[in-house]
Design a protein that fits this description.
It is built from 3 helices and no strands. It has 77 residues and is mainly alpha-helical.
């Protein structure tokens, strides 16, 4: 059975998923909600904004240099 990004089990096909959703809706099966990961949601939002803000404030030459270094690391494997 495939797993989701958080490791939760889910059906492999669309029909199986539809049956599972119907069972949850009728109360035959409990809905498994992801557990709270303990991270501050506001801090997560700021973290998502940080990379974009850093890239915008950086000179194009510096971004190209970082990209070249990353590509070299990837291809070195």
């Amino acid at each position: 059975m495939p797993t989701g990004p958080k490791g939760q089990k889910r059906p492999a096909d669309a029909i199986g998923l539809a049956v599972r959703i119907a069972r949850i809706a009728t109360g035959e099966e409990p809905e498994e909600l992801p557990a709270d990961d303990g991270k501050d949601k506001a801090a997560q939002e700021l973290g998502r904004k940080g990379g974009k803000a850093r890239a915008e404030s950086m000179a194009p030459e510096r971004r190209a240099e970082i990209a070249r270094k990353a590509a070299a690391k990837r291809w070195a494997k």
